[in-house]
């Protein structure tokens, strides 16, 4: 069935879902005290309708044209099931909503479902929603968990009247918006302006562009001083990428590929990969607007410098609006060239704000009809604002606290004119409140100012309610939320969207930081004791929760648990041991409570099913104390005789944890107490690997002095030097080299430390290794040198460094590809220029006879094609199969490149080129007419390539036509892929079946990594095609050449339980080992895919040996 037909069914289902939603909404809005179940069902229907709308729009778009849906496809089966269930639901609801029955009986109307029926309905709809949205949200959730809209919505909600609207009319903003004044607008505001006016500017700009530029992508990031440790460069780029992807109807293939690759290797993607994806995704929009709010609140150091560097790249393809304070030097250096505007709070905004505040009921009664006093208040505050918005917000609070007109007049005369003076004045006013109110305000300010992350109001209330020495929580001790804000006299506020409680401004945080010792001398001691007391409560004595639902229920009733578990040690490190050590030892001795805390430490946010169980098992009290770096507690536990070599389920000892943290004192203590320096931790990494990875020089020195093996390798054959080079840890690299580390050791992928530093884009690390004699011509598993690898990735800085060091520009990999071939295929224009400037041979051929022009034509990179032609590339050079660049471009549908080559005089058969352009589209008539002429034959290059293109686009009619005319079914493209391989890798069931029926070779392998059609169909997630290939006898034992994985290894690493089961049911060898010697079971256990591991074990238990192969390896068969 074609997409438009399916779209029609989905659209009908959407209408039905909306109709059901309206009926339920009528019930919930009309019936007083409508049940919570009714509201839950209403929300579920709304969510389901939103997903259906998005799906319907996609199915009607051009992107869906190549897709064909089988009657048995998941989408059609689910749509039919949804339709049946929703119709039944609507009929039942209609009994209660027809004619006058509702109007007569609405007040006594009862919900027409039992609790069980309602729950089953909600569960079913929820499953459908997940089914339609699962893959998209899995990828997006994996990318970023930042709730990017919360701050935007909260800022817009708090804006008074027309505050900030003047910004949209500024000449600078309009010039930037229209693209007449460069791509960066830097809005600068002094302290006191920033967090109010600047946030309004950011939110207004975002809102304005979103509403007026429907064709543009809009992304943003709000920095916040109170969450600076959580705002890393990875999080910023991931959040921006996620926002951009949410504005697309489907995920681009490179995003899905990165997700699959990262899942497969169990790795977090590098920032450079995320940046590249962000830039490539941005090209899918007519324009992209990026707003960065409060950039100065991004933590100074690596994060901010790397972000500023990234913004320079983004400036090329995006329009950037940045707000910040003006004085940070690094910002001035990076943004000095930008269009700039100085922002101040305008008088009209301040005046509107003050007038609105004076409408306060109490103050309005005091002022009565005294308009003169009201004007005096507004004038005094506006005149003293000096372009700041914060100062009026503090001063008006002082006015509102007065009880007579005389007090207001006297207060006006003594209003502090500086921010710090205002803060001091407010604290003095807090100090004269009744003792209980004063003490509560003091504690609230202490907690907010010193919490390790922003606290939600429920967390704060529970933290404040903890009483020393208690074993249970008493709800009667919870403070009143509204009164907390009142007691603090305007210094705190609660975000309505996120429910996070915050200080009114970051300058107040700076004030507290300066005066913390005098204002809050016992801050960390009090918070530590509250956290530990909470964790010792009997409520957590049953140990960790066994399901997500149980865990969420626990957090609902004990919202402070997660903060207490994750940060008690952070506060403990900053206070005296005597203040908490006894309580810490008591907590460590309560096994079930400790396990409950470990679950809360590791569970994180709700991103996927089973998240609550993803915490380290067998995590001892020594692991916990070490992870926080609390030396006194570690020492006390060792004195009690705890096992210093204990490993939790991922295999880490306390020494590995301390080395990863860079905790010199704890590492020294553990070594002095006999910890084994060579003990292997997480996935085979030792303490030295961990310290090198994270750049901890002092810890690395301690470990080396204690005899750590400098050449020890992990299961991927990484040495400590590999680790340090991969992450650009310059100090550790120098240290290891001084200690004699071997630079030429190769990992599992035959990469040296120089390879790792180069591909991870660390130019300084590359320079250090080269200066110390590293072999720049060393080759990895596919024969690539560092230059070849970095040219392929377009890492211009490293490429230039290598070229300046004199590396061979003509070095080739095992396919005889030069750096120029690789850079051209990747479309890396500047890298291609750099290579040509250093004399790269533009006519060099790989083993297939292809030049760089062939490779770039294959990729369709127009600007690089232009450059190569300008530099003298042979436009008509043919590869070993007689294919020219023109044929390459045409056979891959790159129309603009075809036009350029033809305009430059490229020779070619015009009818053949036309056939190639017609094959992937719905142009059977044109293809037939072309083949009926004498000018083109199915046996020549154009005819063969046309078959490949038709297979790629699932064009069954053209495939049949070409085969009937004699096209070679085994013809291969430049990558060695046949029509069958292409159709399978794209998930085209009908085309794959047709080609198999016509005798296509099912075991054909592409030339780069020896993937089979089965392997690529599995990687693409094309379950039906995988099943088809297995039914036709596809070899499940075929291994790719990178890591020696079978398709079972890949499915296991990805965590695809259904695919693993399908492969096992079709005889996949459980004992097959990859290039590292690992089985699928070992891989499942390594990446914590417990259900897959259980399935494999079950299959092994039900298996019988049927013999041995010639190599002596056991074969298994289900018995």
TrEMBL record:
Statement: the UniProt record of this protein carries the keyword Electron transport: no
Positions of the GPI inositol-deacylase winged helix domain: 438-516
Gene3D superfamilies (alphabetical): Ankyrin repeat-containing domain (1.25.40.20), P-loop containing nucleotide triphosphate hydrolases (3.40.50.300)
Domain named Azaphilone pigments biosynthesis cluster protein L N-terminal: residues: 1-101
InterPro entries on file: Ankyrin_rpt (IPR002110), Ankyrin_rpt-contain_sf (IPR036770), GPIID_WHD (IPR054471), Multifunctional_ANK_Repeat (IPR051165), NPHP3-like_N (IPR056884), P-loop_NTPase (IPR027417), PigL_N (IPR031348)
Species for this entry: Glutinoglossum americanum
Keyword presence, Secreted: no
Chain ranges of the Nephrocystin 3-like N-terminal domain: 162-325
Protein name listed in UniProt: NACHT domain-containing protein
Assigned keywords, A-Z: ANK repeat, Repeat, Signal
Cleaved signal peptide residues: 1-25
SMART domains: ANK
SUPFAM superfamilies, per database record: Ankyrin repeat, P-loop containing nucleoside triphosphate hydrolases
Domain of life of the organism encoding this protein: Eukaryota
Repeat region (ANK), residues: 617-649, 650-682, 683-715, 716-748, 749-781, 782-814, 815-847, 848-880, 881-913, 942-974, 975-1007, 1009-1041, 1043-1075
């Amino acid at each position: 069935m074609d997409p438009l037909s399916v779209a029609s069914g989905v659209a009908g289902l959407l209408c039905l879902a909306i109709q059901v939603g309206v009926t339920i909404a009528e019930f919930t809005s009309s019936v007083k005290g409508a049940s919570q179940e009714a509201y839950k069902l209403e929300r579920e229907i709304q969510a389901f309708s939103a997903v259906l709308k998005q799906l319907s729009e996609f199915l009607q778009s051009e992107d869906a044209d190549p897709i064909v849906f089988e009657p048995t496809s998941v989408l059609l089966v689910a749509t039919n099931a949804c339709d049946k269930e929703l119709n039944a639901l609507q009929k039942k609801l209609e009994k209660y909503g027809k004619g006058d029955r509702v109007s007569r009986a609405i007040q006594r109307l009862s919900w027409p479902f039992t609790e069980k029926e309602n729950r089953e309905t909600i569960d079913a709809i929820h499953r459908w929603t997940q089914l339609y949205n699962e893959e998209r949200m899995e990828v997006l959730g994996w990318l970023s968990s930042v709730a990017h809209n919360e701050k935007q919505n909260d800022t817009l909600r708090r804006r008074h009247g027309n505050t900030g609207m003047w910004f949209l009319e500024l000449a600078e903003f309009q010039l930037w918006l229209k693209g007449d004044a460069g791509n960066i607008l830097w809005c600068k505001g002094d302290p006191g302006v920033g967090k109010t006016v600047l946030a309004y500017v950011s939110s207004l700009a975002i809102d304005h562009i979103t509403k007026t530029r429907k064709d543009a992508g809009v992304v943003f990031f709000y920095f916040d001083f109170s969450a600076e440790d959580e705002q890393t460069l990875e999080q910023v780029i991931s959040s921006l990428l996620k926002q951009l992807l949410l504005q697309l109807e489907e995920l681009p293939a490179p995003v899905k590929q990165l997700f699959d690759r990262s899942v497969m290797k169990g790795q977090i993607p590098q920032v450079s990969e995320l940046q590249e994806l962000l830039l490539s995704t941005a090209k899918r929009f007519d324009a992209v607007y990026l707003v960065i709010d409060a950039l100065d609140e991004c933590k100074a150091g690596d994060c901010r410098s790397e972000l500023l560097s990234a913004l320079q790249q983004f400036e090329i393809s995006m329009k950037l609006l940045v707000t910040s304070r003006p004085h940070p030097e690094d910002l001035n250096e990076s943004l000095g060239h930008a269009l700039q505007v100085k922002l101040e709070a305008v008088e009209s905004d301040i005046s509107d704000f003050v007038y609105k505040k004076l409408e306060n009921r109490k103050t309005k009664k005091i002022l009565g009809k005294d308009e003169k006093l009201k004007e005096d208040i507004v004038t005094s505050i506006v005149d003293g604002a000096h372009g700041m918005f914060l100062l009026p917000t503090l001063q008006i609070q002082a006015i509102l606290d007065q009880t007579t007109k005389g007090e207001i007049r006297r207060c006006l005369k003594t209003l502090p004119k500086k921010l710090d003076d205002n803060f001091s004045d407010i604290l003095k006013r807090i100090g004269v409140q009744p003792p209980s109110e004063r003490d509560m305000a003091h504690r609230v300010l202490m907690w907010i100012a010193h919490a390790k992350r922003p606290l939600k109001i429920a967390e704060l209330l529970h933290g404040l309610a903890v009483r020393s020495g208690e074993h249970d929580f008493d709800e009667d001790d919870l403070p009143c939320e509204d009164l907390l804000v009142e007691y603090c006299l305007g210094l705190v506020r609660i975000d309505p969207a996120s429910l996070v409680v915050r200080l009114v401004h970051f300058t107040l945080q700076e004030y507290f930081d300066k005066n913390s010792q005098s204002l809050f001398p016992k801050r960390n001691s009090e918070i530590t004791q509250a956290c530990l007391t909470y964790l010792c409560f009997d409520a957590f004595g049953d140990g960790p929760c066994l399901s997500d639902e149980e865990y969420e229920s626990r957090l609902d009733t004990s919202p402070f648990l997660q903060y207490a578990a994750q940060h008690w040690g952070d506060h403990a490190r900053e206070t005296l041991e005597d203040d908490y050590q006894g309580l810490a030892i008591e907590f460590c001795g309560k096994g079930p409570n400790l396990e409950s805390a470990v679950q809360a430490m590791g569970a994180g946010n709700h991103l996927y099913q089973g998240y609550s169980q993803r915490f380290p098992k067998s995590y001892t009290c020594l692991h916990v104390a070490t992870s926080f770096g609390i030396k006194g507690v570690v020492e006390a536990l060792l004195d009690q005789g705890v096992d210093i070599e204990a490993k939790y389920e991922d295999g880490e000892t306390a020494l590995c944890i301390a080395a990863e943290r860079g905790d010199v004192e704890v590492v020294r203590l553990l070594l002095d107490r006999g910890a084994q320096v060579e003990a292997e931790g997480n996935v085979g990494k030792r303490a030295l690997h961990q310290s090198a990875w994270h750049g901890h020089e002092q810890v690395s020195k301690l470990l080396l002095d204690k005899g750590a093996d400098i050449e020890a390798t992990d299961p991927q054959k990484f040495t400590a030097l590999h680790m340090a080079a991969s992450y650009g840890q310059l100090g550790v690299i120098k240290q290891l080299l001084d200690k004699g580390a071997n630079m030429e050791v190769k990992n599992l992928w035959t990469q040296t430390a120089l390879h790792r530093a180069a591909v991870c884009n660390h130019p300084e690390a590359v320079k250090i290794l080269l200066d110390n004699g590293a072999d720049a011509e060393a080759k990895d598993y596919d024969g690539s040198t560092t230059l070849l690898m970095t040219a392929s990735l377009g890492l211009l800085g490293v490429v230039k460094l290598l070229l300046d060091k004199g590396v061979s520009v003509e070095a080739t990999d095992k396919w005889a590809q030069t750096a120029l071939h690789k850079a051209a295929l990747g479309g890396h224009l500047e890298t291609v220029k750099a290579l040509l400037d250093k004399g790269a041979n533009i006519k060099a051929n790989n083993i297939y006879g292809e030049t760089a022009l062939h490779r770039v034509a294959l990729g369709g990179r127009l600007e690089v094609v232009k450059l190569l032609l300008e530099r003298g590339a042979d436009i008509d050079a043919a590869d070993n199969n007689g294919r020219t660049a023109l044929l390459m471009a045409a056979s891959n549908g790159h129309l603009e490149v075809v036009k350029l080559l033809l305009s430059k005089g490229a020779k070619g058969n015009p009818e053949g080129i036309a056939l190639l352009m017609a094959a992937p589209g719905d142009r059977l008539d044109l293809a037939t007419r072309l083949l009926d002429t004498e000018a083109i034959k199915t046996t020549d290059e154009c005819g063969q390539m046309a078959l490949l293109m038709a297979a790629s686009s699932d064009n069954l009619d053209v495939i049949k036509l070409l085969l009937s005319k004699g096209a070679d079914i085994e013809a291969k493209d430049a990558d060695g892929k046949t029509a069958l391989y292409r159709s399978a890798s794209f998930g085209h069931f009908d085309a794959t079946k047709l080609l198999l029926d016509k005798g296509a070779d099912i075991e054909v392998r592409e030339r780069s990594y020896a993937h089979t059609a089965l392997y690529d169909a599995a990687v693409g997630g094309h379950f039906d095609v995988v099943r088809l290939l297995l039914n036709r006898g596809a070899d499940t034992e075929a291994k790719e050449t990178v890591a020696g994985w079978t398709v079972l290894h890949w499915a296991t690493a990805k965590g695809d339980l259904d695919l693993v089961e399908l492969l096992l049911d079709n005889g996949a060898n459980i004992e097959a080992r990859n290039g590292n010697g690992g089985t699928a079971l070992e891989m499942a256990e390594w990446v914590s895919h417990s259900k897959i591991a259980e399935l494999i074990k079950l299959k092994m238990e039900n298996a019988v040996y049927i013999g041995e192969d010639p190599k002596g390896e056991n074969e298994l068969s289900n018995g």
